[in-house]
Write a structure and sequence with these properties.
By secondary structure, the protein is α/β, with parallel strands linked by helices. The protein has two domains: 10-21 and 88-216, Rossmann fold; 23-82, DNA polymerase, domain 1 (Orthogonal Bundle). It has helices spanning 23-36, 44-50, 55-60, 68-82, 93-102, 115-124, 148-157, 171-180, 194-199, 212-216; strands spanning 10-13, 20-21, 88-89, 106-111, 133-136, 164-168, 183-186, 204-205. Strand 7, helix 9 (194-199) and strand 8 form a beta-alpha-beta unit. Helix 1 (23-36) packs across helix 4. The chain is globular, with a radius of gyration of 17 Å. It starts with 9 loop residues before the first strand and ends with a helix. The relative contact order is 0.19.
Amino acid sequence: MALWPSDIRLCAFDLDGTLVDAFPAITDSINHMMREMHLSPQSLPVVKRSVGLGVENLVRCFVLEEDVPRALAIFREHHDVRLRQNIRLLPGAKALLPFLKARGCVLAVATNRPLQFCRVILETLGIIDYFDHVLCGDMVPRSKPYPDMLYEILRQSGIPASDAIYVGDMTVDVACARAAGVFSVVVPTGSCTRDELEAVGPGALVDRLSQIRGFFSQ
């Protein structure tokens, strides 16, 4: 694995499966959409494996292409309400964010979620004030695995890629970080398995977010 950068000034995070468990809410909204369209419901594991490439791609996993616009509208209306209920921070996130701020790190979110839903999550969980930059899939020309979000965060912060890390839970997060020249850290708490993450050669793979604190004491 690559060496941990010597001077971490920027820590960027993916959202779903990395900082936040919103998979039950996503599944509820998908199944509301399925019922409205007279389709069979989907299990949480199936929906969880489909998350990570943006809302439109998520919806496309479950309906015909010609039904995507209607399905997307149904999903968005339900999810805007459902997302404010029964979502939680993943273990270690609540302590990690203030720890990093105390270390002087600039914090950012880089997620394929649209800004509308990203802000709902950050505000509902009371963590929005930790973040200096929030970049979402609908704010850049290309979402992950392309590096556009990380490029924009680096530009806005004025911090070089060599002084940044990106923490995610999917192989697309590793690809995004690598393309941007940023050190990648992954946790197997989201849509990808540990084996899938190891196969793409991340900078570091940790079992839980709290382990990231250990890198700073070395």
